[in-house]
Amino acid sequence: MPRLTICGGGNAAHVLIALAAKAGWEVDVFAPLADEAERLRAGITAARGITARFAGESIVGCPHHVSSDPAEVIPESDVILLALPAFAHGPTLEAIAGFIKPNVSLGAVPARSGFDFQARSMLNERGLSPRIFGLQTLPWACRIAIYGQAVDILGTKAETALAISPPDESSDWTRQLTTLFGLELVAVDSFLTLTLANTGQLIHPGIMCGLSRGKESITFGHDEIPLFYQGVDPTTAELLQVMSDEVQAITVELADRLPDFKTNEVLPIYDWLLRSYPNYISDGSTLRRAFTTNQAYAGLRFPTRSTGPDTCEVDYTARYLSEDVPYGLVVIRGIAELVDVRTPTIDEVIDWAQQRLGKQYLVNGMLSGLDLDETRAPQVYGIQTLAGLVSSRYM
Ligand code: NAD
Fold this sequence. Notes:
single chain, alpha/beta, 8-stranded mixed β-sheet, 15 helices
């Protein structure tokens, strides 16, 4: 079995530590944030491993080594897996790059958009060209129950998309990852497809903007926080539809210019919802109804922060904007620019979101904002033309 290092000490890392060690992988953990390595070691020692609990079952896995020092775990790794929010990818790659051996496979779950641009750029400049892989989504809804000891898996997706660069001709690697994650991984053509097909980058900023624009200063009682997905109103459904149409326009233009580009791997938002939640949507007659009658979304409310003992407001720094805009929507916007496709509605949402985040990505319709370098738009990595994008596609 290859030796795997899981980077991170959050919910996703807890699940993976349990599943991977139980599946027979040699597992180490790199957890440099604050005292996480220490807390993980203490928890794992006390409970003799981390238990992942789901639907009446449980799996216990025990890693070999947990460290905050990359020199102790990274040099022996055959596979490195970033189980982290996208904003932690850069600092983690920076910390481990000097210790990675040649021929490593390096991946992220979830990859979000533009992970391949960032990982290649940071590793190539150190003479490394690893195999890179990424999952479209985190396969589980999960929450740590006791740090270093137990994590609850609240739901598992039936399948998720996987990109591997360069592509996995033999399918061996896809099979190994399927065993590791314990669910069906649907291999897509490239990271470009994975990035364009990332629906979270439309849904999260789209709903935040659609339902809050013009009402940003409203406060709620803690028991009055509006529903998020099930709160989608007709205007927001229309906004989401148009954002999805703009991504489809980018996809069609790419297919026009790149004969082997598979448009059917980039699903429109409505098709994606119906395919992802066939048993949860009771009325899929319209895009709006596919949100509002989706039981998988039942009870999920806006992210909020307290404004007083009894009141709160929408938290515009939540990951629905702080992750899905710089590591999602802005990447898509950058790709649109490379193929000369206009995206006025996506621009409108980015413009609204960047004001909420106190950032500047788009200025007068140009990707030239002061904070653009904090995003993963292809332009940040020197990709200024479609030819540049194509040459990065299978590297
Ligand atoms: P989490 O909040 O539990 O993970 C945070 C962890 O990231 C920290 O504990 C730390 O280990 C690491 N980290 C944060 N900043 C860091 C830094 N600067 N340097 C190094 N490490 C750092 O997140 P999670 O729930 O494990 O989610 C991981 C990803 O999966 C996120 O993108 C999240 O949006 C996505 N996701 C999670 C769920 C879920 O149910 N947990 C569901 C869908 C998607």
